[in-house]
Amino acid sequence: KQEVTQIPAALSVPEGENLVLNCSFTDSAIYNLQWFRQDPGKGLTSLLLIQSSQREQTSGRLNASLDKSSGRSTLYIAASQPGDSATYLCAVRIFGNAGNMLTFGGGTRLMVKP
Amino acid sequence: DGGITQSPKYLFRKEGQNVTLSCEQNLNHDAMYWYRQDPGQGLRLIYYSQIVNDFQKGDIAEGYSVSREKKESFPLTVTSAQKNPTAFYLCASSSRTGGGETQYFGPGTRLLVL
Predict the structure, then answer these.
(1) A16: Cβ contacts below 8 Å, ≥ 6 apart
(2) A11 vs A109: CA distance, rounded Å
(3) Hey, which of A21, A44, B83, B97 would disulfide with B105, CB 3.0 to 4.6 Å?
(4) The predicted structure's pLDDT at residue B100
(5) Is B109 an interface residue toward A (CB < 8 Å)?
């Protein structure tokens, strides 16, 4: 069964720092991997989607990489801002006849201090 | 303004009571999903539906029931058989289940037990 782990569980950094969030998964047979942002008490917003054939995706100050063979993905946030404070979740999509199933990690709670 | 709506934002359940959480989408998506999120944890799939009048159990379906009578609506009932219902419930939808499309999330419903 696919398991997704995110390290660290919580992270506090001063404004302006570059930072890396880690996501690992146990089964490399994934369809794609997605990073989400969740603000407290809110739903999820999709940040980046990496297909299994891709190595990375970029959106603004965010860059996500995927190493399927080692079961790892990283989310790089450049020049962090207080507005980046949120929980970041990664999820892998396994493709099977049961549907478009997502397996989530536990999230990394990020706080960026002014 | 397209999107997913969930109501209510907060819901209180008494012992032995069934409660129903609403999820509506106007994105014309075929697939809809219900997830449960416990504090500090990732999301776990309760039920999903690929098409009207069809739905499948996810990883933690016990104590829950759903219906999919209309494309736009996928209500979740938390029954009295669910002994630990306190959690944050998120509904999502996607254009189809087999292509790895992004899931779009609603704002969530927080369920509390009195």
Answers:
(1) A79, A80
(2) 6
(3) A44
(4) 64
(5) no
